[in-house]
Structure prediction request, 35 residues.
Amino acid sequence: MNFKEKLFFEIQYFRIFYFFNRSKLLFLVLFRLTH
Prediction:
């Protein structure tokens, strides 16, 4: 695996991780509003 591929995978991983955390926060906010 070369440097460009490594960088690409790290960016993809970061995006997924960030999106997951953000959706989890959104879910908690919605849960608090509805309950």
